[in-house]
Amino acid sequence: EIRELLAGGDPFWLNIASPSDSQLTELAALFDLHPLAVEDTRDFGQRPKLDEYGDQALLVFFGIADGTPREVHMHLGEHWIVTVHQNADALLGPVTGRLSGKERNGYEECLYRILDQLADSFFPELEQIDDVIDTLMDDMVERPSADQRQRLFALRRQLVGLRRIVGPQRDLLVRSDVVLERLPGIDRDEARHWLRDVYDHQLRIAEQIDA
Question: pTM (2 decimals)?
């Protein structure tokens, strides 16, 4: 079925959760992925980045679920997007629903929907952290205890960890159109319109973390 889609030329998105080593090898052969891109996908634990490999690119982007960052590798080709992840089903599932109700989805919109879902997943997490901070501040005034300082330090470490993700993601979106314009199947102007919205969300998230 993948070979038929590749031959057909219409845009499509393939989402793969926790592939085995042999499946990843087969995937690399089907899509002619660059060996360095495949090596990165074999080794999760990457930082957010956008690497260009001729007429393909690898975009590593994060969302968050259950308080834990979720790493998603997006291999981008002429008319296809392949996402590979280990534990991001809950994040990417809603994207399928948003796209399936339409007769046709453009490449640029599909890319946007995936990135937007991952970016927006940070907002509920930050709201929850904000509520915890408010409660902790009230408790420190009304009911001081010895463990409150450690709870503050733990929250600070959590926020610093999130900032180390969000900052690079915001920065790579600034230069993304320069890389994406060289992919044969992407309309640069159309992609810029969609990705500007994701950038704005990343900017708001970064400002909220700093606050």
Answer: 0.90
